[in-house]
């Protein structure tokens, strides 16, 4: 343990660098027997959840049965995407055994000895697969209590030798299944907007995929930090599964936060910033966060982020949605520029969409 420091001699960058270079992650810190978390994980009070108000009904996100009548499903998804920006789906095309296998494989990796995991710990995104703690560790004002395994699945296939052995087959199978589901969801979302059903597919939105697995171990001081800070996802669509440790993922709902229940076999879907802009604000990309885990068991999640593979094309609101009465809310931009902005800032808030917003109040 590092010695206690005063405000005057606290050197955050040095402590962060020492932790990062140790390559043990937050799971390694926990396994070392710590009872207090390092200071660079402490978040300011405004970032931390306050006490839950009494006598206020608990908010949850909708659960949609994908096997229902097609027109009903389209309307339910359109409504959820236009308001809360999040929904869960059940009776989808992916077997529960496949979900359990994928989640189980990444959990197995995160619970390996430090010596094994260290082989995969780095911050070089170009390798296609990386294990680390917080991609914005050096940019953020406070670190978050989670470890991450990120694998770029497409358009360039990962170097599978850079992926932990126990995850290779399960993540490859998971990716195949998620592409089919992603295509089905994009068709439904296009129908909900009244544009050509395969518009998102034509814009290569199924082809740029990153698979990001998070591990949220028990936190000795959950009241001082978070699992992941409040943020929105930058891409088109996010498809997420989690294990049975629920009650930690929350979605912003006005001034309140809605809980995302852990429903076995359900898949969580949320709209990304890019789809909000392409839909000209019809669909909403909503802030969400993960609380630090106070439970004994770890929370494990796998998110697949769908993005366009064509990075040089200009993106912006669909022309079919623009009229004199419904002007464009956003200007066009290159996807490459957009993602560069995302990865050079701290993971928080909704600054990206605001950056590309047009001021329609000017004459």
Question: How would you describe the overall organization of this protein?
Answer:
With 363 residues, this protein is of the alpha+beta class. It is built from 10 helices and 14 strands. The protein has helices spanning 12-22, 25-31, 70-82, 96-110, 114-117, 165-193, 199-202, 273-278, 335-343, 351-355; strands spanning 63-65, 86-90, 129-132, 147-154, 208-216, 226-231, 237-242, 249-253, 256-259, 267-271, 288-291, 299-307, 314-315, 333-334. An 8-stranded mixed beta sheet has the order 1-2-10-7-12-5-4-3. It has a 4-stranded antiparallel beta sheet with strand order 6-11-8-9, with no helix packed on it. Helix 3 crosses helix 6 (165-193) and helix 4 packs across helix 6 (165-193). Mean pLDDT is 92; it is low at 1-5.
Largest sheet descriptor: 8 strands, mixed
Strand order of the largest sheet: 1-2-10-7-12-5-4-3
Helix content: 25-40%
Separation of the first and last Cα atoms: 61 Å
Count all strands and give the number: 14
The percentage of residues in β strands lies in 15-25%
Poorly predicted ranges (pLDDT <50, ≥5 residues)? 1-5
How large is the count of helical segments?
Answer: 10
Q: How large is the radius of gyration?
A: 20 Å
Specify the structural class. alpha+beta
- Roughly what is the average pLDDT, rounded to an integer? 92
Q: What overall geometry do the principal axes of the alpha carbons give?
A: globular
Order of helices and strands: HHEHEHHEEHHEEEEEEHEEEEHH
Walk me through the topology.
Blueprint: H1 12-22, H2 25-31, E1 63-65, H3 70-82, E2 86-90, H4 96-110, H5 114-117, E3 129-132, E4 147-154, H6 165-193, H7 199-202, E5 208-216, E6 226-231, E7 237-242, E8 249-253, E9 256-259, E10 267-271, H8 273-278, E11 288-291, E12 299-307, E13 314-315, E14 333-334, H9 335-343, H10 351-355
Parallel strand pairs: 1-2
Antiparallel strand pairs: 2-10, 3-4, 4-5, 5-12, 6-11, 7-10, 7-12, 8-9, 8-11, 13-14
Helix pairs in contact: 3-6, 4-6
């Amino acid at each position: 343990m590092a010695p206690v420091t005063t405000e005057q001699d606290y050197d955050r960058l040095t402590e962060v660098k020492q932790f990062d270079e140790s390559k043990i992650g937050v799971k390694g810190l926990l396994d070392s027997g710590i009872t207090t978390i390092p200071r660079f994980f402490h978040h300011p009070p405004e970032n931390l959840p306050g006490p839950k108000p009494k006598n206020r009904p608990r908010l949850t996100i909708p659960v949609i049965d994908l096997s229902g009548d097609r027109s009903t499903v389209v309307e339910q998804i359109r409504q959820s995407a236009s308001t809360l920006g999040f929904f869960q789906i059940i009776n989808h095309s992916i077997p529960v055994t496949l979900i359990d296998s994928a989640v189980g494989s990444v959990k197995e990796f995160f619970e390996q000895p430090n010596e094994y995991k260290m082989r995969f710990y780095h911050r070089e995104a170009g390798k296609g697969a990386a294990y680390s703690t917080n991609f914005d560790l050096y940019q953020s004002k406070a670190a978050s209590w989670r470890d991450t395994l990120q694998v770029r699945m497409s358009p360039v296939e990962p170097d599978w030798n850079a992926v932990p052995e126990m995850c290779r087959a399960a993540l490859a199978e998971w990716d195949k299944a998620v592409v089919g589901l992603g295509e089905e969801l994009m068709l439904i979302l296009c129908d909900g907007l009244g544009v050509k059903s395969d518009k998102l597919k034509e814009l290569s939105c199924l082809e740029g995929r990153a698979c990001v697995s998070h591990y949220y171990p028990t936190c000795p001081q959950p009241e001082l930090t978070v699992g992941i800070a409040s943020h929105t996802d930058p891409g088109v669509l996010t498809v997420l599964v989690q294990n049975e440790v629920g009650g930690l993922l929350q979605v912003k709902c006005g001034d309140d936060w809605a809980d995302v229940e852990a429903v076995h076999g359900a898949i969580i879907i949320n709209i990304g910033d890019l789809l909000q802009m392409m839909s000209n604000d019809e669909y909403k990309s909503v802030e969400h966060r993960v609380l630090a885990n106070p439970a004994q068991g770890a929370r494990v999640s796998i998110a697949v982020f769908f993005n366009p593979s064509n990075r040089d094309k200009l993106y912006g609101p669909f022309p079919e949605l623009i009229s004199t009465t419904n002007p464009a809310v956003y200007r066009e931009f290159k996807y490459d520029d957009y993602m560069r902005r995302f990865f050079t800032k701290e993971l928080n808030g909704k600054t990206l969409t605001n950056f590309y917003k047009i001021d329609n109040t000017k004459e």
